[in-house]
Amino acid sequence: MGxxxxxxxxxxxxxxxxxxxxxxxxxxxxxxxxHAAEDLVQSTLEQVYVHWRxxxxxxxxxxxxxxxxxxxxxxxxxxxxxxxxxxxxDSGVLRxxxxxxxxxxxxxxxxxxxxxxxxxxxRQREAVVLRYWEDLTETQTAQAMGCSVGTVKSxxxxxxxxxxxxxxxxxxxxxxxxx
Length: 179
Prior knowledge:
Residues 111-163 form the RNA polymerase sigma factor 70 region 4 type domain. Belongs to the sigma-70 factor family. ECF subfamily. Residues 21-80 form the RNA polymerase sigma-70 region domain. The protein has 2 domains: 1-82, Rna Polymerase Sigma Factor, Chain: A; 103-179, Winged helix-like DNA-binding domain superfamily/Winged helix DNA-binding domain (Arc Repressor Mutant, subunit A, Orthogonal Bundle), CATH 1.10.10. Helix content is 65%, strand content 0%. It has helices at 3-31, 34-50, 52-56, 61-79, 110-118, 122-133, 138-145, 149-165. Helix 4 packs across helix 7 (138-145), helix 6 crosses helix 7 and helix 6 packs across helix 8. The N and C termini lie far apart (50 Å).
């Protein structure tokens, strides 16, 4: 094995180890199920590894990987337009392990919020997850989703409005007037 390949493999491994929890959290929130999230992260990392030389030298490799994940999720969703990826019941769902920096993990009714989030249309869910869980700016979210800032604003507003309409979630979804 050449030194260049070994270095590339070590860089990729370091990236994956450092970003795994965040990638899994994002995938879980997008897919609505632990197994689907694991599949999404795995297929994303397979695609990224093939092009790691390009990805690793990008200004923001994490943003690049996030974009690949969003595109992979969108492709899966388009293929199964009628069959939504979120489970119909939560009997077989393994729960995400919250990290200490996750504001939503601090909510009393996290399960209810995740269930309501799973009911949002894919683009609204993507916008809400990227803006409020990943704490991206509107511009970063637009880049990750491959759309305009106006589309991000619209999808975020509609998604938050739907979450606020769920009984008992109004207090949880209050996000401090973020713009």
